Amino acid sequence: MTKIIKVNERGSLTLPRDVREKLGVTRGGQLLVDMEEGGEVVLRAGVVMPVEIYSPARVEEFRQMNESSLTGRKLRWRKTQ
Q1: Using H for helix, E for strand and C for coil, what is the string for 16-80?
Q2: C-alpha R_g of the chain
């Protein structure tokens, strides 16, 4: 698919609707731009993954929650081959 897109005076461009739909990009979405050796530009739909960093206190809270469900249970370990 080849499209001609104009670049405005601010350097912005608008991707045609069918291109945005094919990439799955919606308003506020992100694109990855790769510039190849030969001057070719490749656009890929970007994905943003939220990252949470837990404090030591929060990690301890998780550990206690996990272990509290095991309280009073007899655990048996089985050797696997």
Answers
A1: CHHHHHHHCCCCCCCEEEEECCCCCEEEEECCCCCCCCCCHHHHHHHHHHHHHCCCCCCCCCCCC
A2: 25
Query: What are 39-63's pLDDT values in tens digits?
Result: 898 888 887 778 889 999 999 998 8
Q: How far is CA 38 from CA 2, 21, 22, 42, 57, in A?
A: 18, 27, 25, 11, 51
* pLDDT of res. 76: 79
Compute φ and ψ for 43, nearest 5 degrees. Answer: -105, 135
- Among 22-31, 38-47, 70-79, the range scoring the smallest mean pLDDT is 70-79
